[in-house]
C-alpha cells in the first residue's frame, strides 16, 4: 500500500480520477431523469393564472428573487364530487397537493404551489370515476389519468388539466386516515394523486421508464414510495424556478 | 382649375381609404391578440390523456397463449366478439365541470360470432357501436395513451370486459375498447396483437381454439 501511494504516476492518476469524480458529483444527481410534456418539440406551459397572476421575479420588476415579495407560481385546483363525496379522499388530495409545494432554498422563496384560491379561474380539476377493470391480455389496470389540453403554438399554452382517480371495485385504496397504509392489500391513494398532479404542472413520465423511483414513473407497484422524489422536484424547479439550468435538463419520455 | 380640384379630392379619398384599411387590419390583429390572451382560439385544441397503471403478476407471469386460454374464466370478462368495422364517427361526450369534453371514435361493428360461457353479451348478426377513446374533430384532437388502434373495414376480435365509465362505459349497444389488449386484428388469416402484444400473431383457427373450451 505504501509503495502504491509513493508511486508518482499512480498518484497523478488517482488525483485525476478524484477530480473527475468531484466534477461528476457536482452535476445534478439526476440530470436527464425528468421529462416535460411537449408538442411539436416545444414545451407545453401554463400561462399561470391565465395572465392575471404572473409569478417569479418578473412579477415585481426590479426586485431580486430573494425578496420576500417574490410570487410563487400557482395553479388552482378544484376537487369535484368524486373526491369530496368519499371519506378521506379530499384530505388525501390536500396532502398530495402539498407534496408539490416547492421551496427554493438557494433564494429563500417559494417557487410553486397548488392552490385553491376562491373565485379564480380553476385551471385543474380532480375527480374520481371508474376507469375499468383488468385488461386480461396485458395484465394492465388503470389507476388514474390526467387529461390535459393545450392550445398549440410556440409556446404551447396549457388550457386545463383534469385528473381522474379510478374507483373500480378491484382496487382497494387506503387514505391518509387509514393506519398502516399502504399494506399488501391496499394501495396508497396519495401516491396516485401525487403522480397525476405532477402531470398537471407539466411533467411527463421520466426518462428511466416504468422501473424508476420517481413518483412520475408510468407504472405503479404497491409498496413503492408515494412521495415526490428528487427527480420529480428537479423537473418542477426546471419549469418554475428562475435558474432552470441548476436542475439538469429534460430528456424524452419512454412511456 | 376644376381638374386640379378633382385630382386633390381623389388624393384625399385615397388617403382616407388607406387609413380605413389600416384601422381594419390593426383592429383584426388586436382582436386576435385579445382572443389568444383570454383562452379564445382559432386553432384546434390538443389533448393528451396519460394513464398511470399497475399490472397483475398473475397475468403478466403467463404467456399470451396462456392468458388467452384463461380469458373467459375471469368474472369481469364477459365474452369475445368477432366482427368487421365500418366508417368511424368522432363525437365529444360532455363531462361535468370540465372545460373540454371526452372525445371518442365510434365504429359500426358488424358482429359475426361471439364466444362466451353464458349468453353472448351482444347479439351476433347485428351491428353495434365499437367505441375507442380519443379522436379528432374540427376543434379538438385527443390522443389517449394505451388505447387501441382501430380503423375502418378491419376484421377484429374484441374483448367484452368491465370498462367502468371510460368513454361512457359499455351499454346494450355500445362496446368500449380502452386498452391495447382489448383488440386483436385479423389480416390474411393471421390474428395479430397490438401495442404491448404487437409481437403476438397466430393463425385464425388456432386463435379461436382459446375460447372453445
Account of the protein in words:
The complex is a heterodimer of chains A (255) and B (213). With 255 residues, chain A is of the alpha/beta class. Chain A folds into two domains: 1-30; 31-247, Collagenase (Catalytic Domain) (3-Layer(aba) Sandwich). Chain A has six helices and twelve strands. Residues 1-7, 13-31 and 49-53 of chain A have low confidence and may be disordered. Chain B is of the alpha+beta class and 213 residues long. The longest helix of chain B is centred in the first third of the chain and has 36 residues, at 2-37. In chain B, strand 11 (190-192) and strand 12 (201-203) form a beta hairpin. In chain B, 25% of the residues lie in helices and 35% in strands. Strand 8 of chain A pairs antiparallel with strand 1 of chain B.
In total, the number of strands of chain B is 12
What is the first-to-last residue Cα distance of chain A? 49 Å
Write down the secondary-structure element order of chain A: HHEEEEHHEEEEEEEHEH
**SSE topology string of chain B:** HEHHEEEEEEEEEEEH
Report the β-strand fraction of chain A as a percent range: 15-25%
Give the tally of structural domains of chain A.
Answer: 2
Find the CATH topology of the largest domain in chain A.
Collagenase (Catalytic Domain)
CATH structural class of the largest domain in chain A: Alpha Beta
Number of strands of chain A: 12
